[in-house]
Design goal:
alpha/beta; Rossmann fold; two-stranded antiparallel ribbon; 30% strand
Length: 254
Amino acid sequence: MSKNIIVTSGPTNERIDAVMKITNMSTGALGAIVADELLKEEKLGKLYYISPKLAYKPGTKSEKLEFVQTESAVDLLKALKDIITNNDIYGIVHSAAVGDYYGEYAITGEQLASLIASELYNKELDKEELERTILEVIKNPDMITDNTHKISSYQDNLMVKLGLTPKVISSIKEFDPSIKLIGFKLLDGVSKEELISVASRLREKNKADYIVANDLSRIGNGKHYATIINEDGIYKECETKDDISKTLRKILFK
């Protein structure tokens, strides 16, 4: 019986204006290598590869491969929901580096100062009321800089308010609890014990079947050390992207 798989890859891009984005350093290289490995599998039905335009793509040409282009975390979440709802998906390799924040709005310092001054003018407030009033202005300003066009390169005192993006991995099992979910966690310069502990909590919280735990300080020069964990603890330790991809193929098609 063939199995349909989704691979998410690359960064998410959150727009500040028509040309500026909040993104991260992910290239999607690992996701592309995983997809190429899965495309070698005879039992693969269809592989949906979800990534932004400029991320790495699998090099394999196959009728089983369908590209789905997304940009923001919201785009990614919508694409996952659509594919899972309308298809029989066996497993997901969620390697996309979903950004934690998006640009909620942009405002100049002068605009913000004017709004706060107008709200506080001639009001006698205690410290707690003052903090609450200022925070409300910051959360819901009456005037913001238009982010549908390019903000001027000469705009002084520009400020960007960040909001939290949706936690994509948290929604996957809500779409279909039976999906075999492989998530990823990246930390930098931590002990092996801490990396495994954080990844284990992520796995439990999001009902993932496996988590690929990575340490940024151990990625480079042809190496990509990773510890794959499941409900029993450490499943396998890998040293390269190829090793990771072959292990994930085994997990999905064993």
